[in-house]
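Below: protein 1.
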Amino acid sequence: MNPFPESDSDQETDGFDRIPDVLILLIFNQLSDIKTLTRCRAVSKRFNSLVPQAESLLVKVDCVISTETGEWFLLQIIKSILQSFQDLILPRKQILQPGIRSSPAEILRGFEKIRKLEIELPSGDLRLEKGTILRWKAEFGRTLKSCVILAVRSIEQVNENNTGDQNLLDGDLNGDEIDFHGDGSGGLKLRVVWTISALIAASARHYLLKEVIKEHREIESLILRDREGEGTVIMDDLGLREFREGEEEEEGGGGREAHVSTVGWKNRTTVPAVRMRMRHEARLDLSGGVRMKGATLVVVRPTEVERESGGTTKSEIEERKEDKCLALGGAFDGVFGEAVEALLKRRSYLLEMNSF
């Protein structure tokens, strides 16, 4: 026999009702995954009313649908998310009408107070030769603000006692120049192709975020990355405000969208004229017996930034400092971060590229 019988009021009260809304929202923000939060809405009327107030959201894309129809890349892949939502929200016999296009903004339309939004794609956009690894991180406002690109021809694990070709290693550490005529791994031309490919991928992803930014003016941080870690687009609060102000100016002017280019069927943000500092090492021996071959680091900055800052060209020392801040500012970690630190100590080569 229970010596402390529960009163009728205790039996009728749900334990969740005793948890304040603030604490539940804190839990929702930690969950962040939009699929999980959408399922939470079916738990109770209270959860259904609180989920749209979540401030931190993560959209994970499980699969990529073919883009042969000519629709936007991101709009296609997010349809896979909507299909799972359909089973939850609609009766099983009810089917969404075919031909309806759903945008990222439509998926997020029920959320009212988004502050931090992350979108994770299942894979990168680039198709590189076997063994090549490319990582990039781009920051945007209305257009490109900076981009750091790390490319490696191959990574291998070597025996610590096996020094390999010591002459080649010593020559590289003394600052061997990039072989502009081809170094057995494609030379300068290949590295420029890598750089352009990364910039096009970044600008295409930036353009696809346009609708979300316009409809959710409360967003203060926006990150778009892929699960494989190939590329990341970042927009902070300042960059988001700059983007919205630029859009308002274009809408007020009534003209065609500026800063927009088209490649085939896919629109992307135009890449401005840029200055690129490239560093290359034929071989890097890192901690743990890791060896990288054909490692290249490229730091990209728009030339317009220098003009706006006073019209004077920065010295190489100043640019080196900025390169270090951009490349080491959380862009890469682990073995890639170590490679970046090593490459920043190497000789750099300045390249310029017109807008495209």
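Below: protein 2.
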Amino acid sequence: MSLNTFSEEQFLLELSDDRSSSPVTRPPIRNRTPPYLGNLHLGFHQHQQHHHQHSETSENEIYDSDESNLLRTPLDRGPHFDLSASKNITALVGKTAYLNCRVKNIGNKTVSWVRHRDIHLLTVGRFTYTSDQRFQAVHNPKTDDWSLQIRYPQKRDTGVYECQISTTPPVGHSMFLAVVEPITTIVGVPDLYINTGSTVNLTCIVRNSPEPPSTIFWTHNNQEINYDSPRGGVSVITEKGEMTTSYLLIQRARTTDSGKYVCSPSNADPSTINVHILNVGSPLKRLALPPSQWSLPLSLMVPNIASTAFFLKIHAWANYCR
């Protein structure tokens, strides 16, 4: 009986010592591993840590979903570029161009534009820092866009331009501006020789245009061609794309169809060709042309051996008389 009483008193005494001990001199009991718990206590401690981490994750998820605190969450990247709206562009000579820079979460930072060719500061915020007044900053607060406007761009303006954010250190995004001048050409210039009765096919090609011309006008001897005229047989086909091609077709060519034809795209300089409609029975004119400009079939040009010899004699006599 006294042994049991002693054991109970000893137990109470030790329990009292545990409660009165200072936490500074004695580690918390949860960090001690009594022999009688073994691995069970370790597993419980790991479970507590996992539960604690899970609680923190849940709290972060709730915190991140709070819109009022969104700018203070780890999801905040600070000022950064929206690359989907900041791209290279191709502009036409003389037509106002815009280099766009979209900056998200700009805060109290500023946006600047720098020209790489001469490391020249062009704009800071909405202010222009160059004597070239063709450059101007345009800001659209609804879309976070900071655009560089270039009026009357020239080919010399082609190059790299950088949009910078005044962070520490500054961050920038470079874009390339290509200023091009569309080129208009008509196949076969400057002169094209066609036989009467044949089909005239004038092909006008527009290259280096960032967008297809809205219209292409054809003129004949300074008069706009009327495709519904009583003459008939005149039509035009235009294929638009990166390279725009316009075909002017004139069926059953006549001598009155001779003259100057001009192809005039709405966004490029015109191109001119001189068309000569020849009669079938004009061998001297045919002999004066290089073979590449003969429009007659070989069967018409050389109907038989006798006529061929006759043409050669005339050609030799013409050279002898020079």
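The longest strand covers residues 171-180.
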